[in-house]
């Protein structure tokens, strides 16, 4: 297993693995209740996160691809494309929702920018230059305000307060 995250209500957990499978786990019985087999065409999963209502899961592959999965239908409903990532990386930054889940955000190693998409439509929005001089390895967005932190191999962490 490469990544695991609980839903806000702790009734479910999601895990992503090196074999590319994403599994949904019952938080009480610890049993697997759903699997997205080869979710990113067999590419290892970098991160997996629930939406606030725990009806969807956002996954990031180590190839910088990002997908939104609907749990009720067991299918990918949006693939966020055009990040321009630098290819495969075991340490690429995870994608995340912004605080109100209107946008999906992913730092792009190649350009050093933050890629942004409309979460419901997958439409690519503008890039935000992040000012790091090396690849970004972690990215965390606040759940309550338009703030986020980026951490890079340039040994810098940057705090941002930015409405998108």
From TrEMBL:
Upper taxonomic lineage: Eukaryota, Metazoa, Ecdysozoa, Nematoda, Chromadorea
Name of the protein described by the UniProt record: Cleavage stimulation factor 50 kDa subunit
Annotated compartments: Nucleus
Gene Ontology cellular-component annotations: mRNA cleavage stimulating factor complex
Predominant cellular place of this UniProt entry's protein: nucleus
WD repeat boundaries on the chain: 1-35, 45-79
Organism for this UniProt entry: Panagrolaimus davidi
Residue ranges of coiled coil: none
SMART domains to which the protein is assigned, alphabetical: WD40
Cross-referenced PROSITE patterns: WD_REPEATS_1, WD_REPEATS_2
């Amino acid at each position: 297993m490469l990544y695991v995250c609980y839903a806000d209500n702790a009734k479910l957990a999601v895990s992503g693995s090196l074999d590319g499978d994403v599994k949904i786990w019952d938080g009480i019985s610890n049993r697997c209740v759903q699997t997205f087999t080869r979710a990113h065409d067999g590419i290892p999963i970098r991160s997996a996160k629930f939406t606030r209502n725990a009806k969807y899961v956002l996954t990031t592959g180590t190839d910088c691809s990002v997908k939104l999965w609907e749990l009720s239908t067991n299918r990918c409903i949006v693939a966020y494309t055009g990040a321009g990532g630098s290819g495969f990386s075991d340490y690429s930054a995870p994608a995340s929702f912004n605080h109100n889940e209107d946008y999906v955000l992913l730092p792009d190693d190649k350009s050093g920018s933050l890629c942004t998409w409309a979460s419901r439509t997958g439409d690519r929005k503008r890039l935000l230059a992040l000012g790091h001089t090396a690849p970004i390895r972690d990215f965390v967005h606040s759940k309550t305000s338009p703030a986020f932190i980026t951490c890079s191999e340039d040994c810098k962490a940057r705090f941002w307060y930015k409405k998108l």
